Amino acid sequence: MSAFVDAITGARVPVIAEVKLRDAAGTDLLGGRSVAEVVRAYREAGAACVSVVTGRWFGGNAELLREVASLIDVPLLQKDFITSQAQLRQARQLGASAVLLTAALLPAATLPRVVDRALALGLTPFVEVTGAGELPADASACVIAVNNKDIKDRERGSADLGRGLGLLPAVLATGTPCAVSASGIDTPETGARLVDAGFAALLVGTGLLRASSPRAWFDRFAHARTAA
Ligand SMILES: O=C(O)c1ccccc1NCC(=O)[C@H](O)[C@H](O)COP(=O)(O)O
């Protein structure tokens, strides 16, 4: 399929661990740590894939992706407002394996074109949706992520995990090899319930960045899954 999908679906803990400098309210998420320390903690936890938020609403920039790529050798997802061929090329150059394509920000007629361009560059399209109307008809080469928050309000609202669960049958009907639940997953036990319900993977930023130990978060997730 793709290195990104193979890595996350084959992982003991299918959690894409996110590097994000600030949350939606602008609050610092590094807590005095360097990016290198955060990435080291993700590596020690066994993260199979890492997401890097380069979007400026969350304090990111392109250099952050370059830095993370120099620190860890797992497939990277770039999270930004990506709409153009130039941004796709830059993502590849900076070390991304997958790129966020936010369906709500791309006209329905444009999304398939950007998906094809990403694939032609060897990038896995990580298509993020909040409703059934945003789902591509054929997502056999894409990750489909349901965002439990809403980027239109800069993710300042609370997470609605029920929305993703309700959308899951329609998401799977697109043929995606990897359905992801993204945003607002605060505890490993909540994450385990989402995977038990049929999501192939999770995208977790704030919950992991605020945890005292990403490795302990991963271990609790694995324990919650075997206990189920
Ligand atoms: O979702 C978007 O469209 C987006 C665009 C540009 C930069 C970031 C974007 N989203 C960020 C996220 O969705 C979250 O950081 C991610 O899902 C993790 O959420 P959380 O675990 O709640 O920190």
UniProtKB/TrEMBL annotation:
Residues 4-215 form the Indole-3-glycerol phosphate synthase domain. This is indole-3-glycerol-phosphate synthase. The keyword Amino-acid biosynthesis applies. GO terms for biological process: L-tryptophan biosynthetic process. The keyword Lyase applies. InterPro entries: Aldolase_TIM, Indole-3-glycerol_P_synth, Indole-3-glycerol_P_synth_dom, RibuloseP-bd_barrel. SUPFAM superfamilies: Ribulose-phoshate binding barrel (SSF51366). Its EC number is 4.1.1.48. Keywords: Amino-acid biosynthesis, Aromatic amino acid biosynthesis, Decarboxylase, Lyase, Tryptophan biosynthesis. It catalyses: 1-(2-carboxyphenylamino)-1-deoxy-D-ribulose 5-phosphate + H(+) = (1S,2R)-1-C-(indol-3-yl)glycerol 3-phosphate + CO2 + H2O. Pathway: Amino-acid biosynthesis; L-tryptophan biosynthesis; L-tryptophan from chorismate: step 4/5. GO terms for molecular function: indole-3-glycerol-phosphate synthase activity; phosphoribosylanthranilate isomerase activity.
